Structure formats: C-alpha cells, structure tokens
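---------- Forwarded message ----------

FYI, see the Excalibur calcium-binding domain-containing protein record below. Original note from H. follows.
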Amino acid sequence: MKNVKTARPMAALVTTVAAALLVVAPIAAGPAEAAAKTYKNCDAMHRDYPHGVGKPGARDKTSGKPVTNFKVSTALYNANTKSDRDKDKIACEKR
C-alpha cells in the first residue's frame, strides 16, 4: 500500500509539469518565429548574412566548393524561402 500512496502524488506532479510545458512551449517558440525578418532580395540579406541563411542540415547544391558558412536558422530560412532558387534549403548562398 505504501507504493500506491507515493505514486499518486508523483503522478499528479508529472501531470502538472506536462501541462505547464504545453502552455509555455508555444509561447517561447512564438516570438522567435515572429522575429524572423523577411528580406526583399539577396542583396538585402547579404548585408546581414553575407553567405545566406539555411536550415539545419542543409547542403549546398554546387559543382564546385559548397557553401558551408551560411547562417543556420529555420525561422529566417522559412521567412525567405522565395530566395532559395535551387531548393537546397539555403537562401542566397554565396561564397
């Protein structure tokens, strides 16, 4: 019987923490996504990010040396997907 009495408060604690995370997590993610700037064109983006912006794990499609020093940001990339002409998940890549 001792284990049953201990398990109930623990289950209540786990439920409370899980509910709190569900409420806080979307709030924490919201401002970061909202803060992503949309650039008019690649020249404008290159002023802030000289080598472009890409998603985590993106690989440059090129026959030469691939660009690897781009800014990694899902939010920035998603705000500027129109600038990813070759659809390699890197917008405005530049060596």
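H. also flagged this: Strands lie at 53-54, 71-72, 90-91.
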